[in-house]
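ok trying this again, last paste got cut off
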Amino acid sequence: MQRIVIIGATSAIAHATARLWATRGAALFLVGRNAERLAVNAADLRVRGAEKVTAHVMDATDYATHAAMLAAALAALGGIDVALIAHGTLPDQRACEADLVMLRAEIEANGVSVCVLAQAFGNYFVAQGRGTVAVIGSVAGDRGRQSNYVYGAAKGLVARYLEGLRNRLAKSGVGVLLIKPGFVDTPMTAAFEKKGLLWAQPEAVAGGILDAIERGRDVVYLPWFWRGIMWVIRHIPERLFKRLSL
């Protein structure tokens, strides 16, 4: 029986992944800000076969509560095999440019808090001698673009932090996985026109996450073709890139 902690458990991708774990009889510890939505998701996962489901209310940017959350997870599960860090927001780029307090809050939520939680679980797994820290990042972190560079900068921070954490923990039996989804049809992207082959459903991304964890991958683009798309975007010369409206 796998013992899983999910931070940001009410997000569409996180819940789709939790459903897959539930069908395998996993024990789940769900963390999120909204107690009502957590309760609904927990009930759904119990019906789908989860061995045990516990809900815990926490704001990921309230760093003083992280230790209590980890202690509660250990008390509920008896140990942790995988920590999936999936919380975040999709900020309004233009609003952040005008409101610097908002800008800082978005980088805090999407970047700093993710790194702090990844470090906390990494420390625990090192002491345990095994485990996997899996983090949902974004292809947006691969290059700064005028349309979403606040979000992209936060995800870029996460990518570099996990790269270093992975390098440090490589000999400790601890896996550090960065998941880079492209366009996913979720409530967070409700304002987007969701047409074309580039858009994926949360269930498809969830399957890719479980596969990457089981294979011990370091970085995975989901769906797979985003690796090629982002390779091209990363290698556009800066002189030309500045002229593009991306």
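PB: full thing came through this time. The chain has a mean pLDDT of 95.
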